[in-house]
Amino acid sequence: GLSQPNVPLKPRYVRVNTLKMDVDSAVQELGKLYKVQKDETVPDLLVMPPGSDLHAHHLVKNGRIFLQGKGSAMVAAALQPEPSWEVIDACSAPGNKTINLAALMKGQGKIIACELNEERVKRLEQTIKLSGATNIEVVHGDFLGLNPEDPSFAKVRAILLDPSCSGSGTISDRLDHLLPSHSAVYDSIRLHKLAVFQKKALAHALSFPQVERVVYSTCSIHQIENEDVVSSVLPLASSLGFELATPFPQWQRRGLPVCEGSEHLLRMDPEEDKEGFFIALFTKTNKLDDLES
Ligand code: SAM
């Protein structure tokens, strides 16, 4: 493949699977081989020097830690599900965020992990098995085909939506323009198609009756997959009582100032943060609570 000149500069992140191991034990164990620090933003996330190769480490092999980038690990943490909740992971394979949810929920409550692609369902099931989580129900199907009025979703309080995206925030995608087959026209058609699905899926997520928190994420740097998707659902969101909340308020880089509420959105920058990522968080404020307070 292509050489990846900026890979060595990228810190290596692992998330401790707190279903199987506590963070301090992981720091101690990994500290025998690497310089390990706790990430300053995301709980349970450890950061190691660029180039640290953990693929064959016993803690990875036995599911005590998972290789997971910082952006990815911010998504479930932004959703902040309560342990007792029912949660849908709408586009879930290979399952990194699904099992991240399971750990945050301390193995309690229930996670419905939906995935359309059959091959990827198998990877999802492997990830779940390795994680030791027992509260995840895998649904092989189209998230858009799940009926929000179905009684089996009546108790769903939160949805994590990490749909297919261009991946333009990742290093390999940013090198794609070097390929001879690269075509700008193809790119713009592909982005448009992705954005159509992303908007539909986000609107669908907001329409589940008991859902009060929805997180939307991409590893894309494109406005069309990020701010534009959020902005397209704002009228629907507000008619349903949702507003944009601010995930990780201390984080500096926010949404591009192209839509209402962009200051609530979270961006990671490929240069500054070594990966491109986007997170939006919708929360429903309980009208009754407001009246009582
Ligand atoms: N959240 C995953 C993780 O952290 O490991 C990564 C998800 S990946 C960006 C998007 C996934 O959505 C792909 O596995 C894709 O097959 C799946 N997908 C695409 N369209 C879907 C649909 N309509 N319903 C359910 N899953 C879908």
Question: Can you summarize this structure?
Answer:
It comes from Eruca vesicaria subsp. sativa. The active site is at residue 219. With 293 residues, the chain is of the alpha/beta class.
Write up this protein.
With 293 residues, this protein is of the alpha/beta class. The protein folds into two domains: 7-67, Alpha-Beta Plaits, CATH 3.30.70.1170; 70-292, 3-Layer(aba) Sandwich (Rossmann fold). Helix content is 31%, strand content 19%. It is built from nine helices and twelve strands. The protein has helices at residues 23-30, 58-61, 70-79, 96-104, 118-131, 171-174, 184-206, 227-239, 287-292, and strands at 12-16, 37-38, 45-48, 65-67, 86-89, 110-115, 136-140, 156-161, 213-218, 242-245, 266-268, 277-284. The strands form two sheets. Strands 5, 6, 7, 8, 9, 10, 11 and 12 form an eight-stranded mixed beta sheet that branches. Strands 2-3-1-4 form a four-stranded antiparallel beta sheet. Helix 3 (70-79) crosses helix 4 (96-104) and helix 7 packs parallel to helix 8. The longest helix is centred in the middle third of the chain and has 23 residues, at 184-206. It is globular, with a radius of gyration of 19 Å. It starts with 11 loop residues before the first strand and ends with a helix. 40% of the residues are buried.
